[in-house]
Write a structure and sequence with these properties.
The protein has 10 helices and 20 strands. The protein is an alpha+beta fold. It has 2 domains: 131 residues, Creatinase/prolidase N-terminal domain (Creatine Amidinohydrolase, Chain A, domain 1), CATH 3.40.350; 224 residues, Creatine Amidinohydrolase (Alpha-Beta Complex), CATH 3.90.230. Strands 4-3-2-1-5-6 form a 6-stranded mixed beta sheet, sandwiched between helices. α7 packs across α8 and α9 packs antiparallel against α10. The protein is elongated and about 70 Å long. It binds manganese (II) ion (MN). Manganese (II) ion binds next to loops.
Length: 363
């Protein structure tokens, strides 16, 4: 693999259906995946007769350095149509697939106009092709995700020593970000969820001014970014004390998560079966209606990506990274979620999360 990005681009070309000449990639995230270059105004035109990366003067020099394996062109506003029509003619492009999931209608109209005579095809096919490439993580991608996860774990351990009675959820979320950034996170993978007490029943609660008190469950759903790659982990901890009911619910979620992970460790490769492995444990205990979301999702350059671990099913792609994150949410009372991130291998799975999952009581 002399050049990983050239290799990825060639992979894309090899799966584009014959009736299309190529693809136009203009989303920042897919542009980064195929070129290694991060740019919010890049137009990567990929065809069987050649590739061109077009950007504006703010990025031309950096793009030229990053994309030494591909022609880089600069356009300016007034000559946009001339530049792009010229490319269509030079490469003999009659039609191009576009990223229909990631393009605005305004962008679609603009690119249809400037790329004439090429026609654009927004049938969703390109999005599916790209997700099927991105889902298979290479070793560099796994290294980044592990590094991101490692920072998140070290930071959460720090948070466990930082928690005291009276501190707010917002304080904990801020401390998490500050500490993680200092440990080398480029940024957080998403706005951290810190949900205490009754707020824990809302799976995506926003950290607020509620103060931590004895008897609380506190759910932390946190992640970091390294090299553009995300990590994702959830831990629910108790502060001060727990009731028997809280402990019971915690252990049901823990068993549900373990059951789904065991399914993956044993080589299970169906998304619906993995979802059911977690869900059935919760259902059998009578809490099925309190677990409303899917069991997990793919992670990578984005925090939520293909595939979805849910009833919809499908094969779990080899070398994909997925989360396993069942929960039980009792409205107005409390909630528990536990989430690990796993790497699917040919014969099983590797847990990329190393933090303990047994219930801990802080304070
Ligand atoms: Mn998640």
């Amino acid at each position: 693999m002399a050049n990983k990005f050239l290799w990825r681009t060639n992979q894309l070309i090899s799966v584009i259906p014959e009736e299309y000449d190529g693809a136009l990639i203009m989303s920042e995230i897919n542009g980064r995946y195929f070129t290694g270059f991060n740019c919010d105004n890049g137009y990567f035109i990929v065809t069987r007769s050649g590739c061109v990366y077009v950007t504006d003067s703010r990025y031309t020099e950096a793009a030229g350095k990053a994309l030494d394996w591909c022609e880089v062109m600069e356009y300016s506003g007034p000559d946009m149509k001339k530049t792009f029509c010229g490319i269509s003619q030079k490469l003999g492009i009659k039609n191009l697939l576009v990223e229909s999931d990631r393009m605005t209608l305004t962008q679609y109209r603009m690119m249809s106009e400037v790329l004439q005579p090429a026609a654009l095809a927004a049938d969703g096919g390109l999005d599916k092709l790209i997700e099927s490439l991105r889902v298979h993580k290479d070793s560099d991608e796994i290294v980044c995700m592990k590094a991101a996860q490692n920072i998140a774990e070290q930071t959460l351990k720090h948070i466990f020593t930082f928690i005291k009675e009276g501190v707010t959820e917002a304080d904990l979320a801020f401390e998490f970000e500050f500490y993680a950034r200092r440990l080398g996170a480029e940024r957080l993978a998403f706005d951290s969820i810190v949900a205490s007490g009754e707020n824990g029943s809302m799976p995506h609660a926003v950290p607020g001014q509620r103060r931590i008190q004895s008897g609380d469950f506190i759910t932390f759903d946190v992640g970091c970014v390294v090299g553009g790659y995300h990590s994702d982990m959830t831990r629910t901890v108790a502060y001060g004390s727990v009731s028997d009911e809280q402990r019971g619910i915690y252990n049901i979620v823990l068993r549900a998560q373990q059951n789904a992970m065991d399914y993956l460790f044993a080589g299970g490769d169906d998304l619906a079966e993995c979802d059911a492995a977690a869900r059935d444990v919760i259902k059998a205990e009578g809490y099925g209606e309190y677990f409303g979301h899917g069991t997990g999702h793919g992670v990578g350059l984005e925090i939520h990506e293909f595939p979805s671990v849910s009833y919809r099913g499908g094969k779990i792609p080899e070398n994909s990274v997925i989360t396993v994150e069942p929960g039980i949410y009792l409205p107005g009372r409390f909630g528990v979620r536990i989430e690990d991130m796993l790497y699917k291998t040919e014969t099983g799975a590797v847990d990329l999360t190393s933090m303990d999952r047994e219930l801990i009581i802080l304070g």
